[in-house]
Amino acid sequence: MPSPQNIPLGDTKAQYERLIPQIMERLGEVVESGRFILGPNVQAFEQEAAQFLGVPRAVGVANGTDALVLALDAMGIGPGDEVICPAFTFYATAEAIARRGATPVFADIDPATLNLDPEDVAAKVTEKTRALMPVHLFGRVMPLARLAELDVPILEDAAQAFGAEGVARTGVLSTFSFYPSKNLFAFGDAGLVAANDEELADRVALLRFHGSREKRDFKAVGYNSRLDELQAAVLRLFLGEIDGWNQGRRDAAARYRELGLGDLCELPVDEPGHVYHMYVVRSSERDRFAQALEESGIGHASYYVTPLHLQPALRYLGYEEGSLPETERAARENLALPMWAGIPTESQKRVVSVIRDAAAVTA
Ligand SMILES: Cc1ncc(COP(=O)(O)O)c(C=O)c1O
User: Fold this and answer.
1) What's the CATH code of the domain at 65?
2) Among 4, 63, 164, 199, which residue has the fewest nearby CB atoms (within 10 Å)?
C-alpha cells in the first residue's frame, strides 16, 4: 500500500497563504461593486500585465486554450492553413489549431531544452504554413531568433512561462494560462493574450465578446470568452508577487543541483531566465524512480507520455511511432519533481535521497 502523499508535486496554497486577508479584501470589493464582467479589474490587469510583459496591449480571456483559439482566429488562420508546433506539450496547443480547422504540423524537439528544434521547424515550412507556434515548455523560454528568420508569423504559447525572461517579445501574439497549477495562477480558469500588434489586439478583444464592442452591432462571429472580474482582482494581487515566486522556484532548482541530484539523472539546463513552472529531470530509469517516489509518498508526474502526434484524436494527421524520435524519447524519460516557491530544503533532501536509493538498486 503506498503511504499517503506527504510531499506534493506543487503547493500553490503555501505560496498564497500569507496573502489570504488581502485576497478576501479584493474579492469583497468586487462583490460590493456588483460588477463581474469586463469591469475595472479586468481593464487594470490588462494594462498592468502588458506593462509587466513589455508589450503594448494585453487582452484577458477565459482560459489559456481560448487564448490560443482567439489568437489563431485573429491571425486569420483556418481551413487549408498549416501551423507548426511541438508534439511534446499539452494537448491544447494542437487542439486549438485543429479547432480552427487548420492543420497542426509537428516538429521534433531539441533534447537539451525540450523546446522545438528550430532546424526541424525550418524543414517543415511549406507554402501553406501560416504560423509557427513554439511552446515555452515548463517555464523555459525558447530563443526565437532562428524562427523569426523564417518569415512566418509567430504565436508564442507561453501558458507555462509568465515572467520568464524574453517571453512575448518576438511573437505577434503570445498566450498565457492562469490555471491554478501555473506559476502565475487564478482561483479557477483564466487566460491572457499579449499583443505586439495593436490591430490584432483589437481583433482578439472583439472576438472574446461575440464579435461586438457594445452588444448591439456584431461585426464578427466570435466567442464568449472573457476574463472574470473576480479572477482579475486576484491576478492583480499575484502579479505583484510573481517575480518573487519565480525567484523562489529558481532557488529551489539551484538547491536540487547542490544536493547532487545531477549525479543521478539529467537535470534541466540551468538558465537565468527559466521560471521552472515544472522541475523536470530525465532518466532512462524514470519508471523505477517514479515508483520509488510513489512508495515514499512524494508527488511526481510524467508529462505527455503519449505525445500529441500519437493521440487518438490526432491520428488522422498520419504520424506514426518513430516520426518524432526526440519527442518520443522525452515522453519515456521525463519526470517532474516537487517544485514551488518556498519548498522546504528538508523536502528536497528527501526527494534526492529516495532517488539516490532507487538508483543504487538499479546499479
Ligand atoms: C502549453 C499549454 N498550452 C495551453 C494550455 C491551456 O491552458 P488552459 O488550461 O488555461 O486552457 C496549457 C495549460 O493547461 C498549457 O500547458
Assistant:
1) 3.40.640.10
2) 4
Rounded to 5 degrees, φ, ψ at 205 are: -60, -40
Question: How many other CB atoms are found less than 10 A from the CB of residue 159?
Answer: 28
Would the pLDDT of 175 be above 80?
yes
Residues 235 and 272 in one domain: no
d(CA 171, CA 164): 14
Cα separation values, 355 from 3, 99, 206, 274, Å? 17, 41, 51, 24
- The residue contributing the CA closest to ligand 1 atom 7 is 64
* The pTM of the whole model exceeds 0.70: yes
User: Cα(243) to centroid of ligand 1, in Å?
Assistant: 21
* CA of residue 45 to ligand 1 center, whole Å: 20
Q: Verify that 251 and 235 share a domain, yes or no.
A: no
Angstrom distance (rounded) from CA 11 to CA 72: 33
Mean pLDDT of the chain: 96
pLDDT exceeds 50 at position 286 = yes
Q: What is the pLDDT of residue 361?
A: 81
Q: Whose CA is nearest to atom 12 of ligand 1?
A: 159
Nearest-atom index, ligand 1, CA of 178: 10
Q: How many A from CA of 260 to the centre of ligand 1?
A: 32
The residue range of the domain holding 301 is 242-362
Closest CA to 70 of 79, 80, 59, 82: 59
Query: Where do the DSSP E strands lie in 173-305?
Result: 173-177, 191-195, 279-282
Pocket test residue of 160, 173, 175 for ligand 1, highest count of atoms within 8 A of CB: 160
